[in-house]
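Tokenised fold entry reproduced for absentees:

. . .
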Amino acid sequence: MDISVVSFNIRCANDPNGHSISERAPRLGSVMEPLGADLIGFQEYVPEWEPYIAEAFGVDCGIFNRWRAEANRDGVPILWHKDKFDCLKTGCFWLSDTPDAESRGWDRVFNCYRICTYAVLRHKENGTEFVFMNTHFGGGDDCQVKSADLIASRSKEISDLPTFIIGDFNMTPDTKGYAAMTAHFTDANAVTAKDARATFHGYEPSAHPDEHIDYCFVGEGIVPVSHTLLDGTVDGKHPSDHYGLHIKFSI
């Protein structure tokens, strides 16, 4: 079975120079609509994004989200096409020593609560089941290594089904956190496109040439087919301060 997935950090804030959420939302739709993704995961999803995402995807997609903190409503929602998949289970855990409770955890760089959401999905036609996870790591080696190890252990607790994880991992391929993730999972980009370009650009791509920090990691039973950086603009304007990822794989 072939699956098409998009991961996109859609930027939580209203930025100047034509980059407010209301201005960027139509660009996001323009970039994503032609892809026809089966599954979608966003990072930095905040309440202001909710009506735009609901309008663009809510009719066709189921959605699961949890805020990483009630005082800081920022989430990593998972979306799936309702006509293709049944959702068997959803859940979340915090990247911390107390993962089952809202907790700040290991992020000493940005000092943010960090969370991972997941859904167990079943293809309606052929019955194939798998686990879809979405996250946004904090900063620093200690935080990222512990987060990687927790995701690996939790994925085994959730199910022995094929599992993949998308997200903004705030780490480049030369870091200890990346080494920890690839000890458990395969970087889909590393075995397909091998595209080393930055995924974070801050609306100025030339100023951030080395910020390759967004990934799709896959577990056993999942074969990456392609990995494409969504670097398109609309009238020269970006939909976010990150590029999205479009990944295709087979299960």
Q: What stands out?
A: The longest helix spans residues 141-158. Helices lie at 21-32, 50-57, 141-158, 176-184. DSSP finds four helices and 14 strands in the chain. The domain at 2-250 is CATH 3.60.10.10 (Deoxyribonuclease I; Chain A).
